[in-house]
Amino acid sequence: MATVNPWRPTEPSGRKLSIHVVTWNIASEAPPLDLNDLLQLNNQNLNLDMYVIGLQEMNCGIMSLLSDTAFEDPWSSFFMEVLSPLSFIKVSSVRMQGLLLLVFAKHQHLPFIQIISTKSIPTGLYGYWGNKGGVNICLKLYGYYVSIINCHLPPHMANNDQRLEHFDQILEMQNVGRHDIPNILDHDLILWFGDMNFRIEDFGLHFVRESIKNRCYADLWQKDQLNIAKRQDPLLREFQEGPLHFPPTYKFDKNSDNYDTSEKKRKPAWTDRILWRLKRQPHAGSYTPELPVPDFSLSLRSYISHMMYTISDHKPVSGTFDLELKPVVFIPMITLMHEGLWTTENDILISYSSTPDFLSSSWDWIGLYKVGLRHINDYVSYVWVGDNQVSSSDGLNQVYISVNNIPETEDQFLLCYYSNSLQSVVGISNPFKIQPRAILQDDPLGEAQPRI
Question: Which of 77, 171, 412, 438 has its CA 20 to 30 A from that of 128?
């Protein structure tokens, strides 16, 4: 076979990614039947590229945890079922007791998302119990470092100092301890959200409820503990937040829109928050021609609560962002090519090329997937690239998939190359169809004729 020189695209001028972030304390409840509003599925103008979903207070009883170890938890399964038909794939997830963090992306972005680490930081019971704390996914997105943190901080009005201590503790524990990974404060973007449990100081219950009833939030913002802390703490001040143009999201009677009517009558508060921090840039005038400043900016499109959901004593909050960047990485490490017309009559030959800096492993594999896959383990078939290699020369490699592992179906398929060392998909093919097996039958003249 002739040597193939893979096409190398010119460097792109820029790219915009739309990211939808969700945080929700679900109070150990199961998913409701319809989450279209929360996921903004009815908004055709969004054209989202990624979902980042953080849940708190998932059911973490011993039987639930054992079940979730063997099977996907109900919330993860729900989100995958809803999002996979829209070409979203679960890229990564991490769970610590009641905390769950999920990242979904459109399949075309997979070769440009590298999972660096997933981490859990318990802060409950002197740092040994995971009922409070944070979970983190650190990734490289088109070559930029992005850290995503879902947290649950200590409750109650009097524990504000403890909340701030846990905030600092979670931040300090994020560094992965590898010399090639920068400190988290040097990451290009930190997305931090969750049930932060900050409360409204000074004002009494009646004043707070009347202010909410009349949509007079300005006085309440001034006494919000997180806003007060940001005015006093230089590091916390670097985390931005959108305007709170929605009523406090805690605490409600379950299955209602009424704030707490129990004997405790807890004061409403904006406990559920979404923050972000962009890497600090050098001062103007300090740039050098050898070190150009990368184009990387984040803008908030919407920051809202979703008051129609009543299964929990919290209302969910979402933020939609536009991330504009000039990709540092814009060529996939692996370019996959399927050879000729694919049928279920013969073994399938796959050709792929790699970039010069890609280090392959004997544990790398190529998966065959139906379009609409839920996550990377949702393959129909797979082959180890080392075991099934046919040839390798001049940067072009060929492997085969046995015909016995190819389903007879009219579905569309994708190929994904998974790098074991990078723990990520580094190449993905265009969608294609596999022609079903030809079935021989006799015609009236006695000749065998193929029938598709």
Answer: 77
- Between CA 140 and CA 257 the distance in angstroms is 40
Please check whether residue 1 is in contact with residue 289, taking contact to mean a CB–CB distance below 8 angstroms. no
Question: Which conformational region is residue 394 in: left (phi greater than 0), alpha (psi within -120 to 50 degrees), or beta?
Answer: left
Across the range 166-187, mean pLDDT stands at 85
Q: Looking at residue 358, which CATH number applies to its domain?
A: 2.60.40.2840
The answer to whether residues 240 and 377 belong to one domain is no
Single pTM value for the model: 0.89
Domain-located, residue 419: yes
Judged by phi (left if over 0) then psi (alpha if -120 to 50, else beta), residue 57 lies in left
Cα(198)–Cα(270) distance, integer angstroms: 7
Query: Where residue 389 falls among pLDDT bands split at 50, 70, 90?
Result: confident
Same domain, 137 and 233: yes
* Domain encompassing residue 422: 334-433
**Same domain assignment for residues 346 and 305:** no
* Cα 255 from Cα 253, distance rounded (Å): 6
Torsion sign, CA atoms 227, 229, 232, 237:
negative
- Round to whole Å and give the CA distance between 210 and 202: 15
**Of residues 363, 333, 351, the one with CA closest to residue 425:** 333
Q: Can you point out the beta strands (E) in 313-431? A: 317-325, 334-338, 348-354, 365-370, 381-384, 389-393, 396-401, 412-419, 424-428
What is the tens place of the pLDDT at every residue in 406-427?
887 778 899 999 999 998 999 9
Q: Are residues 305 and 350 in the same domain?
A: no
- Specify the number of domains making up the chain: 2
Mean pLDDT (the chain) is 87
Residue 444 domain-assigned (yes or no): no
Positive or negative, the CA dihedral 126, 129, 132, 134 is: positive
243: confidence class by pLDDT, cuts 50, 70, 90: very high
Distance in angstroms (rounded) separating the CA atoms of residues 274 and 240: 9
Point out which residues pair with 418 in neighbouring strands: 365, 425
